[in-house]
Write a structure and sequence with these properties.
This protein is mostly helical and 124 residues long. Helices cover 82% and strands 0% of the residues. Pfam families: Com_YlbF.
Protein backbone atom coordinates (compact mmCIF):
# COMPACT_ATOMS: atom_id res chain seq x y z
CA UNK A 1 0.00 0.00 0.00
CA UNK A 2 2.91 2.33 0.68
CA UNK A 3 4.15 1.78 -2.87
CA UNK A 4 0.64 2.51 -4.21
CA UNK A 5 0.61 5.78 -2.28
CA UNK A 6 4.06 6.60 -3.63
CA UNK A 7 2.86 5.93 -7.17
CA UNK A 8 -0.21 8.13 -6.58
CA UNK A 9 2.05 10.93 -5.36
CA UNK A 10 4.20 10.60 -8.48
CA UNK A 11 1.14 10.75 -10.71
CA UNK A 12 -0.10 13.75 -8.72
CA UNK A 13 3.04 15.66 -9.69
CA UNK A 14 2.98 14.61 -13.35
CA UNK A 15 2.85 17.11 -16.19
CA UNK A 16 -0.67 15.91 -17.06
CA UNK A 17 -1.92 16.73 -13.56
CA UNK A 18 -0.14 20.10 -13.56
CA UNK A 19 -1.80 21.00 -16.87
CA UNK A 20 -5.19 19.92 -15.51
CA UNK A 21 -4.79 21.99 -12.34
CA UNK A 22 -3.72 25.03 -14.34
CA UNK A 23 -6.69 24.71 -16.72
CA UNK A 24 -9.07 24.08 -13.81
CA UNK A 25 -7.94 27.24 -12.04
CA UNK A 26 -8.34 29.26 -15.24
CA UNK A 27 -11.83 27.81 -15.75
CA UNK A 28 -12.82 28.75 -12.20
CA UNK A 29 -11.67 32.33 -12.80
CA UNK A 30 -13.17 32.74 -16.29
CA UNK A 31 -16.33 34.82 -15.90
CA UNK A 32 -18.02 33.78 -19.17
CA UNK A 33 -17.37 30.09 -18.57
CA UNK A 34 -18.79 30.30 -15.05
CA UNK A 35 -21.83 32.21 -16.33
CA UNK A 36 -22.50 29.54 -18.96
CA UNK A 37 -22.08 26.71 -16.45
CA UNK A 38 -24.50 28.41 -14.04
CA UNK A 39 -27.03 28.98 -16.83
CA UNK A 40 -26.83 25.32 -17.89
CA UNK A 41 -27.35 24.13 -14.30
CA UNK A 42 -30.32 26.46 -13.88
CA UNK A 43 -31.92 25.21 -17.09
CA UNK A 44 -31.35 21.59 -16.03
CA UNK A 45 -33.35 22.33 -12.87
CA UNK A 46 -36.06 23.95 -14.99
CA UNK A 47 -36.30 20.78 -17.08
CA UNK A 48 -36.87 18.72 -13.93
CA UNK A 49 -39.66 21.09 -12.89
CA UNK A 50 -41.37 21.03 -16.29
CA UNK A 51 -41.01 17.24 -16.49
CA UNK A 52 -42.88 16.96 -13.20
CA UNK A 53 -45.70 19.01 -14.78
CA UNK A 54 -45.45 16.81 -17.90
CA UNK A 55 -44.93 19.90 -20.06
CA UNK A 56 -43.13 18.29 -22.99
CA UNK A 57 -43.01 21.47 -25.11
CA UNK A 58 -41.18 23.46 -22.45
CA UNK A 59 -38.80 20.57 -21.77
CA UNK A 60 -37.88 20.43 -25.47
CA UNK A 61 -37.47 24.22 -25.63
CA UNK A 62 -35.16 24.25 -22.61
CA UNK A 63 -33.19 21.28 -23.95
CA UNK A 64 -32.51 23.28 -27.14
CA UNK A 65 -31.42 26.26 -25.01
CA UNK A 66 -29.05 24.00 -23.06
CA UNK A 67 -27.58 22.67 -26.31
CA UNK A 68 -26.90 26.24 -27.48
CA UNK A 69 -25.25 27.13 -24.17
CA UNK A 70 -23.22 23.92 -24.26
CA UNK A 71 -22.09 24.63 -27.84
CA UNK A 72 -20.94 28.10 -26.81
CA UNK A 73 -19.12 26.65 -23.82
CA UNK A 74 -17.46 23.95 -25.93
CA UNK A 75 -16.18 26.58 -28.38
CA UNK A 76 -14.19 28.44 -25.74
CA UNK A 77 -10.54 27.38 -26.22
CA UNK A 78 -9.92 27.26 -22.47
CA UNK A 79 -12.74 24.72 -22.08
CA UNK A 80 -11.26 22.60 -24.86
CA UNK A 81 -7.88 22.74 -23.11
CA UNK A 82 -9.50 21.71 -19.82
CA UNK A 83 -11.34 18.80 -21.46
CA UNK A 84 -8.10 17.67 -23.15
CA UNK A 85 -6.27 17.76 -19.82
CA UNK A 86 -9.00 15.54 -18.32
CA UNK A 87 -8.61 13.12 -21.22
CA UNK A 88 -4.83 13.07 -20.76
CA UNK A 89 -5.13 12.25 -17.05
CA UNK A 90 -7.68 9.51 -17.74
CA UNK A 91 -5.37 8.03 -20.38
CA UNK A 92 -2.41 8.13 -17.97
CA UNK A 93 -4.43 6.42 -15.21
CA UNK A 94 -5.75 3.73 -17.58
CA UNK A 95 -2.22 3.11 -18.82
CA UNK A 96 -0.91 2.69 -15.26
CA UNK A 97 -3.80 0.35 -14.40
CA UNK A 98 -3.14 -1.73 -17.53
CA UNK A 99 0.57 -2.04 -16.78
CA UNK A 100 -0.13 -3.09 -13.18
CA UNK A 101 -2.83 -5.57 -14.24
CA UNK A 102 -0.66 -7.11 -16.96
CA UNK A 103 2.40 -7.32 -14.72
CA UNK A 104 0.45 -8.97 -11.91
CA UNK A 105 -1.18 -11.39 -14.37
CA UNK A 106 2.22 -12.43 -15.72
CA UNK A 107 3.58 -13.04 -12.21
CA UNK A 108 0.51 -15.00 -11.10
CA UNK A 109 0.56 -17.23 -14.19
CA UNK A 110 4.28 -17.94 -13.80
CA UNK A 111 3.89 -18.83 -10.12
CA UNK A 112 0.97 -21.17 -10.91
CA UNK A 113 3.02 -22.96 -13.54
CA UNK A 114 1.37 -21.50 -16.63
CA UNK A 115 -2.24 -22.51 -17.08
CA UNK A 116 -4.79 -21.43 -14.47
CA UNK A 117 -6.41 -24.27 -12.55
CA UNK A 118 -9.98 -25.26 -13.38
CA UNK A 119 -12.54 -23.94 -10.93
CA UNK A 120 -15.67 -25.67 -12.13
CA UNK A 121 -16.88 -26.85 -8.74
CA UNK A 122 -16.64 -29.41 -5.96
CA UNK A 123 -16.29 -33.16 -6.12
CA UNK A 124 -14.33 -33.56 -9.34
Amino acid sequence: MAKAKELAALIGTSEEVRQFQKAEKMIQNHERVQTLISAIKKKQKEIVAFESFQNKAMVEKIEREIEELQDELDNIPLVTEFQQSQTDINYLLQLVISVIRDTVSEKVNVEQGGEPAATSGYGE
